[in-house]
Automatic annotation (TrEMBL):
Organism field: Streptomyces aquilus
Pfam families: DUF1003
Membrane-spanning segments: 61-78, 90-110
Listed name of the protein: DUF1003 domain-containing protein
Keyword set, alphabetical order: Membrane, Transmembrane, Transmembrane helix
Keyword Transmembrane found: yes
Keyword Heme belongs to the record: no
Region spans: Disordered: 1-37, 174-194
Bias (Basic and acidic residues) ranges: 1-12
């Protein structure tokens, strides 16, 4: 009997770590829970609301709404009495128009909010693009300025030609005046100075 008691003790946890509910495994996803409310995809609902809002803002909707209202009124005025479903004050028509307006307003607001979100994202992207363009423009401006400074220090063909012509004239003048080239004269001076 003693071995049976030990196995019974091993099977049932006791103490502060003992739990009455089963342990969940952390390496596996939880099973989906049932919900009382229906689930919907907010993105799909937003796209549907935008389509409805776009339709409500067209002339086609106004024309169809006008046709339906005229047909409603004509039917309820000229149809036989037992086929009329909304008599003269047209309370049911008013109710239907109010219902349509009560759904149209939130759908239009939802579509506007989604458009505002898209506009905000587009503005942020445009702002970042403008910052990159400004940085690129400033970089190119600095590079062009550096090239201009560098070109200012580079000897051009015309400048070299004019300098060589000036040297040739100076050499000719010295040769005609003294008969000694400047290189020979400086070498002679060095020998005399020693």
């Amino acid at each position: 009997m003693a071995p049976e008691r030990e196995t019974a003790r091993e099977r049932t946890p006791s103490g502060a770590t003992a739990t009455t509910r089963p342990r969940t495994r952390l390496d596996q996803p939880r099973p989906p829970r049932r919900r009382l409310l229906p689930e919907w995809d907010p993105e799909a609902f937003g796209r549907l609301s935008e389509r409805i809002a776009r339709f409500l803002g067209t002339g086609r909707f106004i024309v169809w709404m006008t046709v339906v209202i005229i047909a409603w009124v004509l039917w309820n005025v000229f149809a036989p009495g037992d086929l009329r479903f909304d008599n003269y004050p047209f309370i049911f028509l008013t109710l239907m128009l109010s219902l349509q307006a009560s759904y149209a307003a939130p759908l239009i607001l939802l579509a506007q909010n989604r458009q505002d979100d898209r506009d905000r994202v587009n503005l942020e992207q445009d702002r970042k693009q403008n910052e990159r363009s400004i940085a690129d423009t400033e970089y190119l401006t600095r590079e062009i300025a550096a090239l201009r400074i560098g070109l200012g220090e580079v000897a051009t063909r015309d400048w070299i030609r004019s300098e060589l012509q000036d040297l040739v004239k100076e050499l000719e003048e010295r040769q005609d005046g003294h008969g000694v080239f400047p290189a020979e004269r400086s070498a002679g001076r060095d020998a005399d100075d020693r």
